[in-house]
Design goal:
There is one protein chain. This protein is α+β, with helices and mostly antiparallel strands. It has helices spanning about 75-90, 145-160, and strands at about 25-40, 45-55, 60-70, 105-115, 125-130. Strands 3-2-1-4-5 form a five-stranded antiparallel β-sheet, covered by helices on one side. The longest helix is centred in the middle third of the chain and has 18 residues, at about 75-90.
């Protein structure tokens, strides 16, 4: 038995937001957790990413997405790597060595609803696409004219000390 240092009553505790699915659509999100995991069969790897929704609606909700980076199925690996490339382009990262470099990245994510074809599981949200924030600066290499025009915005982004820019 472990005693609490205080009495807690139910009316003091917040209610959960529930587990209803997010409606399909585009959301602004921040990447708050990443991890590399083994696939169920142990023959591949994927990046598990937590996206915290920041707008335009459903702020505070969370969606998880997986990005295949190694898979015995060449098609699954190709699709996963394409999605990973889309994510990196959307947040402006040109090279990465550690998934922690994604942390703090802001991106628009396209959320969909995935139905289980076997009928064993409830429908769930999944990530179907990425794009940069509207009007957001990108850290990708640019043509000289575009780079000069984007310099003030890039300086503002760099000065924010975002963890995902630590190796720039």
């Amino acid at each position: 038995m472990a005693l609490l240092e205080q009495e807690i009553t139910l009316d003091e505790l917040p209610e959960s937001g529930g587990y209803d699915l997010l409606p399909a659509g585009w959301y602004t999100a921040s990447i708050t957790e990443t991890d590399v995991k083994d696939t169920k069969d142990g023959r591949g790897k994927y990046i598990k990413v937590r996206y915290d929704i920041t707008g335009p609606t459903h702020q505070g909700r969370v969606v998880f997405g997986n990005l295949n980076i190694q898979n015995p199925s060449s098609e699954a690996e190709r699709i996963g790597r394409q999605q990973f490339g889309d994510l990196l382009r959307a947040i402006g990262i040109t090279r990465i060595r550690d998934t922690d470099e994604l942390l703090g990245g802001h991106v628009q994510i396209k959320v969909g609803i995935k139905e289980d074809k076997t009928g064993q599981y409830e429908p769930q949200n999944d990530i179907r696409g990425f794009k940069p924030l509207e009007g957001g600066a990108t850290m990708l290499k640019q043509e000289p004219k575009a780079a000069a025009a984007a310099a003030p915005a890039q300086a503002a982004v760099k000065s924010s000390n975002a963890p995902w820019l630590k190796n720039k």
